[in-house]
Amino acid sequence: MAKNIEFVIKPTLRCNGACSYCNVAETGSFMGKPVIEATFRSLAEYLGRNPLDEVTILWHGGEPTLMGEFFFQEVLGLQALISDHRVEHVMQSNLTCMTPALADTLCELLKGGGIGTSVDPFSDYRRLKSGEPYPERWYEGFELVRSRGFRVGMVYVVHGESVGLGKSIYHYFKNVGVDSLTLIPLEEPAREFEGARLDAPSWGKFLLEIYRAWEEDRAMLPVEPFVTWAHFAHDKDSPRCGFPEGLHCCEPTVAVAPTGDVYPCVRLLDVGSGAIGNLVVDSLEKILTRPDALWRSQRRDLLRQGECASCRWWDLCAGGCAAACGFGRKTVWCEGYRLFFEAVNE
Ligand SMILES: C[S@@+](CC[C@H](N)C(=O)[O-])C[C@H]1O[C@@H](n2cnc3c(N)ncnc32)[C@H](O)[C@@H]1O
Ligand code: SF4
Ligand code: SF4
Prior knowledge:
- There is one protein chain.
- Strands 7-6-5-4-3-2-1-8-9-10 form a ten-stranded mixed sheet.
- The protein has 346 residues and is an alpha/beta fold.
- The protein contains twelve helices and ten strands.
- The two termini are 39 Å apart.
- Bound molecules: S-adenosylmethionine (SAM) and iron/sulfur cluster (2 copies).
- The site of one iron/sulfur cluster has 13 residues, from helix 11 and helix 12.
């Protein structure tokens, strides 16, 4: 069966940002030439042997733009090993150190495609090491990539101070002109965090606030996870990314660290636990046949028989993301999801 493989490449875990809630510990260095070459060679060989499969490459970090334009020009050269229509490139960036030259190179690589980014207009948790104001630098980068035709999706991290501000947050992002909004609850920060944390009922409350604003606005700005939930409500038989349930990310996911180590989930890479191979020494095929490459399905099966058995919201939630709770447990946001689903379906 044809697969869509999600390749998340973290060429560095370093960052020019100093966000107080950041869940990535700044370790290691930058991806070197042997690793990036090995990554694209494995991918080219794999796609040659699996002619129906397609790949999305998400450039992530740390801050991927710290790699600079020459790194991405090298990637463009390596991309020539693979036929263009089988690979789509997207990026997640804070946009605060975007330059015109880098934006031009990314335009060629991403082909005017999508960049995800994050800013927080209502708290000062997002900061830059330089001491410059994050929102201003972010806005300059945002304007620059918009001028090059990129679609820009906002990833908003919901924390304790967000609760009560759902409507304002929705309209702020709609007015600023992003193409979509994705809501993510605050996961355990990598460093000590003295700000306002989120608890599960508050996550449900916040989802409801922003959902009501979204409904009132006739869903003009696409908001996730609402768009996915609406999709499942109308067409359960047409999964968007390989899974028939709402909150699951793609499987297989191949998360590549600067060293070439591969993990089946981005969060496992961030905490450096559960590597399933290394692209410098292992073929992608070999990595994908390791049992742990399918650990999302294994977790889903376990939860379906255990903690989530008989939950009426399974199709929409499926135990949620494992990031904050680990392999064998349902999401720590369960109570919030239940509150939300019950309120909108009453
Ligand atoms: C780790 S960053 C890396 C990419 C880039 N530096 C950025 O900030 O967009 C990837 C995403 O994780 C989000 N993030 C950071 N810390 C988080 C946390 N503790 N919980 C949930 N999401 C978090 C960021 O806001 C961003 O959307
Ligand atoms: S959230 Fe992104 S911009 Fe902020 S410190 Fe973490 S990696 Fe850097
Ligand atoms: S709402 Fe809770 S019990 Fe239901 S599927 Fe999600 S995590 Fe499991």
